[in-house]
Amino acid sequence: MAKADHIPYYLMEAFDQPWKEQLSGRTEAYWGMFSADRQLKFPFIGPVTEDTGWPWKALAASLLALIPMIWFGIRFSRFKPMGRLFFDFLIQLACGLIVWSVTLPFNFYLDWIDWSMLVLLFPAQVAILLINGFEFTEVLWRREWIRHAGMLTPDPAEKQPFVSIHLACYNEPPEMVIITLDSLAALDYQNYEVLVIDNNTKDPAIWKPVQEYCEKLGEHFRFFHLEPWPGYKAGALNFGLKETDPRAEVVAVIDADYEVRADWLATLTGHFHDPKVAVVQCPQAHRDFEHNRFRRMTAWEYDGFFRIGMHHRNERNAIIQHGTMTMVRRSALEGTGGWSEWTICEDAELGLRLMHAGYELVYVDELMGKGLTPADFKAYKSQRYRWAFGAMQILKGRWSWMTKKGPLTSGQRFHFLTGWFSWFADALHLLFTLMAIFWTAGMVAMPQLFSLPMQLFLVPVIGFFFAKAIFGFVLYRARVPCSWYDTLMASVASMGLSHAIARGILHGLTREKTSFVVTAKSRRLGGSNFAAFAPVREELLMACALLLCIVGMALSFGTRYIEGTLWMFILGAQAIPYVSALAGAWIAHTAGDKAG
Asked: Of the candidates 359, 337, 161, which has an alpha carbon nearest to the alpha carbon of residue 278?
């Protein structure tokens, strides 16, 4: 209308009045031609430009990104050109966001929630984006893995290192343990022993059959029943160290539900001929899951880390040691203090300690044994909670190792600090969701006090959500040998663990200890359909609260404001992990022998 009537400008207000934001929204707060501190926003010549400083901001972002981009291109010249170009694009994007966030307070009147998002949320998102982007780039566009280890030609019997295999168990079904013992008895290896250490199982009907079976298997097998015994699994393994045959050079650890390949020891112990090698680690893998929808989705969810994350970490000798399908040089294990009983993730802590002592850890991506997935969603959640809690114990206990210059390389410190960032993102998601529920309730009930978040903040949040989802999905399709359906279901399983991980992180940061809960592998039957959701009561409440928030926003604001529509989209995205947990619990409850 102004153009049709040849009116150059229509002056609504002379000065911005931020206090009006509480009365009628952000628009009236920004109607002025001058800012609230009497600075002219734009010249009265030519067309109105929303941000007159954008060329300088673009220049600043480009200069800020220039050196990191050049450094990355030189430092990682082993990546394919497309990979270096892609990560340089991420660097430029990150620097653009940094410049934008630094200059934002000069252009807008920010309230406390705006400042919270600007100071806490955006730096975390930028960091996680670059960390995930680096993994994405290295896995997809490497020319070859630098540190690659495989199976070796078996040594003759006289050169085989003596291996002591330790199997710690607590309250495990004897028929399951016996299957594991049979596979160990069938090993194509001469120099080994098996120590079965049952700690604190009270019912003799559970541990006695295992003891009797060990006696039948002969001199390679020894059984110990400990009651009472402290230290959980680490305590049992430390007892095993004291009982280990003096000839043993290598200590191997497996879980009570694993069936191992006959050539496990024969083809891998040769790596210990290198005195620098302290650990030889194989992936965790699973069996008997193909015809059970829940076991199938969880099996493929586990597989992603060993096909993607472990290779990425192995490039810098920074793998996470796992407490099964692992072999450890005995002298290194005992020389660095044995298994740590102060953390419930004694395996990961040992791996970090051995790296700190200067040893090499070897990862062989070969399925040398397969176990059972967790029995139900409760066991699945409990295991991931334990891992997250234990990770925080390690982070607190070894903080100086990972933040100060020392024996650990920069690559090792990088992986152990950033490797848990995705779990910190789950904790931030929980906190942000609780804040969003509170703020949405305020916008619906008292709109005069609670305003819609700025569109400028909402768009990057949505972009980060999509980027992280795309990274994960593309990597799965590239590295994990499963179908599209299994990729989707593995994603549901992974997202369904978000709340359990968040609780583990927050509890691990604020508490010293928690109980070590053994992951149940045998099927738990019975219960009504309502009982299916008993393990996910908190997730159900969060999902319902978010749904009510979306309904409240739709009734109060509809689609009149872009900010309101974007906020409803974010609330829906925040609900995905909680809905995934409900889906996982239901699938676990109803899963039978029918293929998914």
From this structure: 359
